[in-house]
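Supplementary Methods, section 5.1.

A reviewer requested that the exact input to the structure prediction be made available. We therefore reproduce it here, unchanged from the version used in the analyses.
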Amino acid sequence: MVYHNVVCQYFLVPSAPRWYLNLMTTPALSKITQPPITLRDMVQDRMREAIIEGHFKPGERLVERPLCDQLGVSRTVIRETIRYLEAEGLVEILPGRGPIVAMMNWEDAHQIYEIRRMLETAAASACAKRITSERADRLRAALARLKQSATDKTPGTIFRTTSDFYSEIFDGAGHHVAWEIVQRLNGRISRLRMMTLSSTARERPGPEHMQAICSAITSGDSEAAIVAVTRHLKDTAAIAERLLAEEEGTK
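The structure derived from this sequence is encoded token-by-token as follows.
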């Protein structure tokens, strides 16, 4: 009992060391703001970019041993990566042949553009209705980075800055579940984007479409935002349909 009273008095009296009192009010652990990148994540990113940028052609076999040698990782990591990319629709597993780079056809591409149209028009409209000055500044900054990447013409950077731009829109709309769906389609969306990037047969350049979307949202005009997104997707879908038809005709 005496010991208990002494301990209580020590912690309660104002003569306790200041550094100790400060320590008691400081959180023991700080929040992790950015998760670490694992080896598996790095390999997935490398292989995803290689497929999207066309280093591995549609229908090409993905052989484990050469991939292990090129990336300097084990077969286990390669197999996990292939299964992950299969779930993204970038890889197919064929009986008797093993994993190949997935083929893209217009039927699948059309469905992807339709899903994008529904999700992106809803997100752009909602973001415009909820726009704040802070969100408008972030969206304009994301657009500036996107335009710079388009000037530099580095595919990986273009995909990342485009994703960041759309992320701001979906976050501003509060459409987090919809953004998760878009992310799951992102590999195939990026393949279509890579296909249409170099085409000059379009209604207007891609950055101009993005500017129209940004301007409509930041001005709070939800109807104009829907129109801008719809025009952009209609333009790119028409290019993709033509290019995929040309590919099919050469087989």
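The two ends are 90 Å apart (CA to CA). These observations are discussed further in the main text.
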